[in-house]
Amino acid sequence: MKKVFALILIMAFLGLSGCGSNPEKAKGDQGEAKSEAKMQLVEEGKLTFAMSGLYKPLNYKQDGKLVGFDVEIGTEIAKRLGLEANPVTNPWETILQGLKGKKYDAIIGSMSITEERAQQVDFTIPYYIEGAQIFVAEGNQDIKTPEDLKGRTIGVIQSSVWKSLAEGYSDKIKSYPSDVYALQDLPSGRLEAVITDSIVGAYAIKENNLKLKPVGSILNKDEVAVAVNKDNPELTKKISEAIQAMVEDGTYEQISTKWFGYNTLKE
């Protein structure tokens, strides 16, 4: 009987020893599982991020594939998070609704930080700084300053920060799904001015050989960041960390210089 009891004690001891043979590994496994659970993704192993696909050179389609500055930034972020990049498109006017409806994990599509948007979603640290610019037809001599926009017909992108800016000058606002479409309406006279990002406007004029010109200096400066759902703070944090690391190791400047010729985070 004593031998049987002793054998039971030995077996129990061995069992306990086996359970705790590698406490650090067990702790690490639990930590990894906890971290994965915090970073919510619509598709496991992928960072799915949205954009309009109509905002050249920031995000657009070339030979059926999404390319541009935003796409390259999003791809680098995904790589640093150990995920596969999965860029997708969504109409700009419903892009926030798509994010809140969990169609994608983030918006990496040149979205400026505004108080109204910040009430609906969280933003990472900025990944570039943009400025609003007035563009008019090359022969236009009537609009030389922002004050000359009073009562004029102004074109802007739908649901953009440019729309509220334009409304401060005129009540004749026409919304477009793309900057290029708005700019193309300037030479014909359907619009008298367009307010858009200075980078996008200059690029569109060059690419489409449009007879347009910028008016005055930059109207304002906006910080552009990645938008993430408010119930996904871990993903917001990790994306911010990835952007910061890109800035610090020089990767960000390489990407920015490739697309624009300068570092868009340096004012």
From TrEMBL:
Its main location: other. One of its GO terms (molecular function) is ligand-gated monoatomic ion channel activity. It is found in: Cell envelope. InterPro entries: Iontro_rcpt_C, SBP_3_CS, Solute-binding_3/MltF_N. Residues 46-262 form the Ionotropic glutamate receptor C-terminal domain. Gene3D superfamilies: Periplasmic binding protein-like II (3.40.190.10). GO terms for cellular component: cell envelope; membrane. Residues 46-263 form the Solute-binding protein family 3/N-terminal domain. Signal peptide: none annotated. Keywords: Signal. Belongs to the bacterial solute-binding protein 3 family. This is Extracellular solute-binding protein family 3. It comes from Desulforamulus ruminis (strain ATCC 23193 / DSM 2154 / NCIMB 8452 / DL). The lineage of its organism: Bacteria, Bacillati, Bacillota, Clostridia, Eubacteriales.
